[in-house]
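sorry for the late reply, my laptop died twice this morning and i had to redo everyting from scratch. anyway the thing you sent over, i finally got around to it. pasting the sequence first so we're on the same page, its 546 residues, then the predicted structure underneath. double check i copied it right bc i was rushing
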Amino acid sequence: MRDLLKFITCGSVDDGKSTLIGHILYDSKLLYADQERALELESKVGSRGGEIDYSLLLDGLTEEREQGITIDVAYRYFTTDVRSFIVADTPGHEEYTRNMAVGASIADLAIILIDAEKGVLAQTRRHARICSIMGIRYFVFAINKMDLVSYEESVYSKIEEEINVLSKELDLKSIKIIPVSATEGDNVTHGSDNMKWYKGEDILSYLENVDIRGNDKEKGFYLPIQRVCRPDHLFRGFQGQIESGEIHVGEEITAFPRLEKACVKKIYVGDTECIEAYKGQAVTIQLDREIDVSRGSVLEKDSSISTSDSVTATLIWMDDAPLLNGGNYFIKLGSSKIPGVVAKILYSIDINTGEYRVTDTLQKNEIGVVKISFTDRITVDRFKDHKTLGELILIDRVSFMTSACGVVEQYDNSGQIENGRISDKSRSASMGQQAVTVIFKKDKGIDRDVLWEVEKKLVLEGRYAYFIEDENISYEEKLKIAEHLNKAGVIVLLQSDTTDLTGLLSDSKTHRIIYESKESDKDAIASFVKKISAYEYDLSKEALNI
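ok and here's the structure:
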């Protein structure tokens, strides 16, 4: 069985991605006779004056052929005497960056094309950064259109310097720089007489021989459960694909997130019973006792994975509407899908410089680092440790469109599941808000009527808020009630006659804020409380004194 390499071609608009792959297929005699004949006929009315337009082999949409650009991801499977390949030819236009990110998510290697006349562009940097975020560790930078710069070595050397700077910035582990002409075939499937100064491999030779086995080493065994198989009352099996390691009959496994243990009774690969199974195999596993396992659970052994209800993730924002603090989404991670909220946008990453920029919004195609809270604890790990449990997408809860994709950088495992009860933070996240008690001093001129109006405005605008104003309840009792309401995820408004309230900030197990602004207008107060509830203030560090 031949080794399989999955790779992606990307780069800026009209850098020659489709032409490069089409030329590989044509030169390698990997086309059927009717495909080759159709290509020759269509090229006669193409954009190359009757010469073969290799990009037509991949640009299948009418719009792609009319405009001469790639819009959708084109997947092609081909094989040589040495290796089998799956290539994702992706679009270069910034508008279709989301399509490129999808292609990168399945790839082991990226070929990034660069126009020799233009050098490294913003879209080149964006695609290189996205590929790196998606876990690609092997890069080929193909400096294309060398025929248009008279195959000058000096042009190649200048762009090589730019690539090396970019490589250091992104900490790319393995890069190969190859000068090519995708239309003329120089250094595509064979060496070039026009560039005798280049002594390295051509594109196809490198793809056939590059060793990527060090790219997917993960610790231990883990199996995300996709389906529970129950054909009759005598059999209950758990189905999915093994993402790492191996498993044998008789071994003890742990079922996450409940952390229950059992031993493997039987293993089936297809309908064949086996004594062992390995990474990449789709299996059905039967355990020796009944435990709580369903879709979204993970069976593991010696993997050091964990559970968490919040993560820090790097996201590529794909939606036309911007990402804001407090946005509610479905989070797809592994085989789990769970409601969650973007609690805080920490910063965005400048595509050109790699600088971090403090922001409270992400626009389409921007890359940023965010804090995400889930409504319950799920099985998770850092992307660099266990890929499948560290990659996620955000799904719009109304349109069900994919809004973002990203990877987990860190997760919060400060607490463990206690009797399966949902955490306070998860309750707040399920409501799409940050729970807090805001205390108003009567001597600031904010009376009961104002707070009634504030409460009304908050509730009508989708916040879960409650003003505790019963005169028959002592202030200490109100604080206790407020604490319970905060644990339930509710925003509490509270009045106080006490002048010195500093002791209240440290005594509570929930967040309390003293409102000391002279602004007593109900709209201004409501706006302030909404900002707090929308995660625009970090209450995890210390209570604020406003």
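Confidence is low (pLDDT under 50) at residues 60-70, 415-419, 541-546.
thats about all i looked at so far, will dig more tmrw
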